[in-house]
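so my prof wants the structure for this chain in the tokens format not the other one, which i didnt know existed until like an hour ago. anyway here's the sequence
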Amino acid sequence: MNEKSPASNCLIGVTLFLAAAANNAQTLRDPTLPPLVQTTGPTEATLSALSIGTAPPSIIVRDGRSYVVLGSHLYAQGHRYGDVRIERISETEVWFRERNVLYKISRFPGARRSTAVPSIKAQPALPFPKPVAP
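here's what i got, hopefully its the right format
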């Protein structure tokens, strides 16, 4: 008689469970990379021409000076990233120059800045009621 011990049955069961779990596993996204952003129109051609990628650039401010984060490096205004020179960094966009062409890349594609208009007219505050003596 060729009977299997309960320990070997348990080991076979655990092995099959782990094999099935690994079969359904998803590949995890690298948390150090920015999320994928779908761009449309001329911005996509601009970004591919600059070989910077399709994600909007991140900006870090240190000691009052703005830096663009490209890959794992910080680049300030005037620095070069390959053939591309960083011309200007603002809070909403970054300007790059490649050869004689100036590119403006928005940090927030699709978002537009405008002046807010108050929806109601501000009313004067009412005075507090005087306390009543008991």
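also thought this was worth mentioning. The chain has a mean pLDDT of 75.
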